[in-house]
Amino acid sequence: MVKFKIGILETGRPPEALATQYGSYPNMVKNWLSHIEGEVFTYSVLDGEFPKSADICDLWVITGSKFGCYDDHYWIKPLETFIRDIKSSGKLMFGICFGHQLIARALGGTVEKHSKGWALGINQYKVQNWPSELGTEPAQIAIQAYHQDQITKLPKGAINIASSDFCKFAAVWYPGFGLTVQGHPEFTTEYASDLIECRRGTSLTDDEVDRALANKTDVDNRAFIANIVKTYLISKGRTHA
After folding, report:
1. How far is the C-alpha of 37 from the C-alpha of 13, rounded, in Å?
2. What percent of the chain has pLDDT over 90?
3. What is the pLDDT of residues 134-174, one digit of tens each?
4. pTM over 0.90
5. CA–CA gap between residue 192 and residue 186 (Å, rounded)
């Protein structure tokens, strides 16, 4: 049987103070999707390492990043082109935070820095327009968040499937192509908390950190979202139950 292949496109790295303990973002994604059997390949696109073809993998995942997708880094425009190549090839995509934003931008949407600042810690989103390909519709989705930028206009054909008062386009469905989320389902609670604390006094104020860390909840749908990815792949005939 031909093995299912996942390609992880690395667009960011954890702070050095956390990398030794928690590993890279591709490793976090790999661990999060470990229930999906197959081979995993990582490409450090932020170092200029790109796959030779979109056909190499069945599912492509774009990680989070500290960069803005509107920044003038040499690897961002080629990555936008690769996203369009993936779509044209009929392969599937999953975008996380920066990846969520960049996929939208590559396909004609817009992304901007939010005037109200940061979304941090567990955020809850109302579900709408839920696609049957993703299985049972949840009442809401709770997921770790760490972002200022967000999508402000969807590309043509994209469907908004989750939102909050702070983030209008928290999860986006691209029929026949992919799913993206503004949050970080690959983050464990421990990593998310340590990342926020690590930014205290630099990109985050004491008040922002304290409020985020005080937002404690036992509800985190990271496993549910991982199962959504598998359900979608099964529905497309790309992998098996």
Report:
1. 25
2. 83
3. 988 998 999 999 999 999 999 999 999 999 999 999 999 99
4. yes
5. 10
> 3-state SS of the chain?
CCCCEEEEECCCCCCHHHHHHHCCHHHHHHHHCCCCCCEEEEECHHHCCCCCCHHHCCEEEECCCCCCCCCCCCCHHHHHHHHHHHHHHCCEEEEECHHHHHHHHHCCCEEEECCCCCEEEEEEEEECCCCHHHCCCCCEEEEEEEECEEEEECCCCCEEEEECCCCCCCEEEECCCEEEECCCCCCCHHHHHHHHHHCECCCECHHHHHHHHHCCCCCCCHHHHHHHHHHHHHHCCCCCC
Angle of helix 76-89 relative to helix 98-106, nearest 10 degrees, comes to 70
Tokens for 178? Answer: 């992919």
What CATH number belongs to 5-235?
A: 3.40.50.880
Q: In the numeric block, which tokens belong to residue 199?
A: 């930014």
Answer for the pair 63, 98: CB distance below 8 angstroms, yes or no: yes
pLDDT for residue 50: 98
Where is average pLDDT lowest: 111-115, 148-152, 218-222?
A: 218-222
From the list 5, 123, 111, 31, the residue with the least C-alpha distance to 65 is 111
For the cut 80, the answer to whether the pLDDT of residue 45 exceeds it is yes
